[in-house]
Amino acid sequence: MTAPLGRLLTAMVTPMTPAGDVDLEATKVLAKALVASGTDGIVSTGSTGEAATLSDEETVAVWVATKEAVGADVAVIAGATNNDTRRSIRLAREADRVGLDGVLLTVPAYSKPPQSGLIRHFTAIAEATSLPGILYNVPSRAALNMPMPTVATLANVPNIVGIKEASGDLNQISAIIDATSSHGDGFRVWSGNDSDTLAVIALGGYGVVSVASHLVGRQIRAMIDASLAGRNAEAAAIHHRLTPLVDMLFVESNPIPVKYAVNLAGIVVGDCRLPLVPPSESAATLLRAELARHAIDLKAAVGV
User: Is 260 a catalytic residue?
Assistant: First the structure.
């Protein structure tokens, strides 16, 4: 039985050594600290985890280290899909074999298949594994949107259980929530953008796959809980307080800023692999200033 897929999922960075190798010990430390600071589950080796630069062997090693660190009760969702359907199937089956709890089904970048191709691609992957699948719509990276009719069709695949929606189009997100509402808890919508979390929850969404939860997981969880309980002013106040930090975490390409911030918060996760580079000095200055204005939950979790 897989662990439940919680409301606050962190799209975790992949720690690297100074030599640029995957740091599995730091991966374990970070995964434990994220859970201690409010995370319900972890998306491992997604775009924030630099999936495009990892070999299949490195990818699986990161999954195994993460799952070992958080244990059976915390979901680890595999960033296992890419442009190649056959390779995606192999990785999804490997995620199943090593005991993960779900698979992220990401719209392929660059190849730009038609919607019928997306349906066949994701259906083939889902049918190849027993794990629950979460669709991931991210037009800013994939150069292709997955609209509501495609999502509604895929929601009928038994083990496709939700979507991480990062289009930023609240009308589309609302339409997806409405179109899949007949599935009850069988299909859930997670915001794919930290800036949209409160709005998505208000529209009937379930949660967020977050980057900012590396740093302020408890506060994001408090915002979600306040919104669900109808404490709208409280939820809005947290949203407004965190918005400048969320914006700063995307001042340069993700995950450059968040890796820099996690290093500052006390867990050494190294730099990104090329073609990504450390933040510019101007971006680093802005990040340091913004981080100083916030209580950082990750610091409390690691005792910094």
Answer: no
